Inverse folding.
């Protein structure tokens, strides 16, 4: 049973509610057997920030919303450091621990937890055989128009095989984690996080038969943008990092070799979270 003794806490900067929760966590979790460090960005003070504390932790606690956790997940991408999310945001699919449930957090620190490995995606902008720019995402990679009102044209290729030619406002390539984010708003399917899969969800396609497509996570996706559309297209990773296309207009998307290790307290159930966040069943108890 793994116990965590080197804890770093990060959170959404310049947020009074987050600062209050972080201070409460530091007070309640203090122990002679633990070291607890706080990302200086939380309080806006001088000191080591998250990227400088990676070597000093065996657990990261993220206080905020899903966006805060997405950012932290990319920073820890190449490590095996697990993340526990404390909800101080809005919806909170990923940050599922209530801020005042100190007993649940204490249980996780003492080795009572559920490990949830989440697929991540890598996107790269290619020019010939070279990678010009790249980014990683936990939720989704989005190809989208940005400076034109009309639709854009592009092709999708999967494992080197031509799939489709699209006329739409863009394309969302999402993980199971991201299937309850932007992709769900675009009419995509909800993928259970245990699935080794990703979904391609067109954004407002011109042809109604151009439906979302679910493929194995081992697949390699390439998007080829029509030359006349390149200047009108941007690539977004988790809505936090933007990439610009080269004149070849090619984007490669593949599963990352790294996974996010997301921790949950004892008693966590995915469908409980889904029902609560999406308001399924109106709170009616099961038959």
């Amino acid at each position: 049973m793994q116990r965590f003794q080197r804890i770093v806490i990060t959170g959404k900067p310049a947020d009074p509610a987050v600062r209050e929760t972080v201070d409460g966590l530091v007070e309640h979790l203090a122990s002679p057997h633990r070291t607890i460090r706080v990302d200086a960005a939380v309080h806006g003070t001088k000191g080591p920030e998250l990227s400088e504390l990676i070597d000093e932790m065996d657990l990261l606690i993220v206080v905020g919303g899903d966006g805060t956790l997405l950012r932290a997940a990319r920073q820890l991408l190449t490590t095996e450091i697990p993340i526990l999310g404390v909800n101080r945001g809005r919806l909170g699919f990923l940050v599922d621990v209530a801020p005042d449930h100190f007993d649940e957090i204490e249980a996780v620190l003492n080795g009572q937890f559920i490990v949830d490995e989440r697929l991540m995606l890598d996107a790269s902008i290619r020019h010939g055989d070279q990678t010009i720019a790249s980014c990683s995402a936990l939720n989704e990679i989005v190809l989208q128009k940005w400076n034109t009102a009309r639709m854009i044209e592009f092709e999708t290729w999967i494992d080197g095989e031509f799939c489709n030619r699209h006329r739409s406002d863009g394309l969302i390539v999402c993980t199971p984690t991201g299937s309850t984010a932007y992709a769900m708003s675009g009419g995509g399917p909800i993928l259970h996080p245990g699935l080794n899969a990703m979904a391609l969800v067109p954004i407002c396609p011109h042809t109604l038969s151009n439906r979302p497509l679910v493929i194995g996570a081992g697949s390699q996706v390439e998007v080829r943008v029509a030359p006349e559309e390149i200047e009108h297209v941007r690539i977004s990773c988790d809505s936090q990092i933007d990439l610009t296309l080269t004149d070849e207009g090619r984007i490669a998307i593949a599963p990352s070799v790294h996974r996010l290790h997301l921790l949950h307290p004892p008693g966590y159930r995915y469908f409980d979270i889904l029902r609560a966040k999406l308001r399924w069943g109106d709170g009616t108890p099961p038959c």
Remarks:
- The mean pLDDT is 94.
- The chain has five helices and 16 strands.
